[in-house]
Amino acid sequence: MARRRSDFDNSLRDHVKETVTMHRVLEMLSLEPPDRSGKIKSIINHGERTPSLHIYSYHWHDFSSGQRGDQIEFVQQYTGCSYREALDKLSGATTSRTSKRRREWKPPPPPDLTATFDTEPEASPLGIQRAAGYVTAKWPFLTLGDLIDFGVKPCETALWSPHRDMKGVVRGIKIRDVVSNSKYAVTGSKFTGQLYRVRTCPGAPVAIICEGESDLWCLTKWCQQSQFRTLVQPMSLPAGAGTWRTEWHGELESFKTIIVMLDGDIPGQAASKHIMQVLGEARTGSLIPPHGRLAESISEADHWLAPIIRRVLTEHVGVDHISGPGTPVV
Fold it and tell me: What is the C-alpha separation between 188 and 209, in angstroms, rounded?
């Protein structure tokens, strides 16, 4: 006869399944949040490029393999642990009173992709020409030289964007194919270490959080060309609007004002609302770019963004005597 779980186990199991969301499970396992379509890369087919595992509120479905399950089964599948060990991890309790010793699961260490990035061959002259044309057509405000200055590597048919941690170690690599315009990441990449940035502004009183790499590149270039270059720290969410990690709060403690400027679509505005709530609305504000996306609105930023930053600096931060591109347009 199969051994039945005790009533205590069933009660705890039901409590976990009703209260622990799949998004919380991903955080506990240090996995990337779902993309805009609600999917992550398969935890079963590790070599796939296009995410196929759909994350729902309290269950998951891997379309590449047909497997599905609840939160407990997800932890079992990802870590290889037993049912009880998965339940222990999700509940913070010990489900087996008779077990004298239980195996502790620890998340894998963050990847070091520095060598992968450094050894990827750079583009030939033809590849450079192709990448330069792609950048000009895709983001008229930018040049390939700008991206290279920001640490992006032009390879033969793609742009490689490293995401580094505070020590400069490459933890994730985003790849944008300049021929097909497809986007994907190097296998094993993690983008949850810190907010993405390509320049640091020590002592800057204002931070602007945007959405995505291209928004960050455009904002950084605009800030560098303005009188705000030492007063505003541009940052972006490293994995889109669905990403927010509590460990990022520490990166933002020193800023007096934080402007959240995500896309104007439903996911972007939902994320903006959430970020303002967790950071505190006393020092945060939300702004939607005129054309819905920052990269598409940056060429007009002297007219719509500069006056707002100037007002924030003078009224809330106490910075005076700002001139040049930061001067309000009447």
Answer: 25
165-188 per-position pLDDT tens digit? 989 999 999 999 999 998 888 877
Q: Cβ contacts of residue 188 below 8 Å, gap of 6+?
A: 111, 113
Each residue's pLDDT tens digit, 58-79: 889 888 778 889 999 999 888 8
Determine phi and psi for 169, rounding to 5 degrees. -80, 135
CATH 3.90.580.10, the chain: domain bounds: 7-91
- Residue 321: band (very low, low, confident or very high) from pLDDT cuts 50, 70, 90: very low
| pTM of the shown model | 0.75
The CA–CA distances, whole Å, from 62 to 21, 83, 107 equal 17, 19, 21
Q: Tell me which DSSP letter residue 324 carries.
A: G
- Rama region for 30: left / alpha / beta (φ>0; ψ in -120 to 50; rest): left
Confirm if 181 and 203 have CB atoms less than 8 A apart.
no
Distance CA(51)–CA(34), nearest Å, equals 9
Q: Which residues make up the CATH 3.40.1360.10 domain(s) of the chain? A: 206-326
Give 43-110 as a DSSP string: SSSTT-SS--EEE-SSEEEETTT--EEEHHHHHHHHH---HHHHHHHHHTS-S-SS-S--PPP-PPPP
**Which superfamily, per CATH, for 7-91?**
Zinc finger, CHC2-typedomain (3.90.580.10)
CATH number corresponding to 206-326 = 3.40.1360.10
Query: Mean pLDDT for the chain?
Result: 85
CB 292 within 8 A of CB 263: yes
Q: Cα(47)–Cα(62) distance, rounded to whole angstroms?
A: 14
C-alpha to C-alpha distances, 259 to 84, 213, 305, nearest whole angstrom: 44, 17, 11
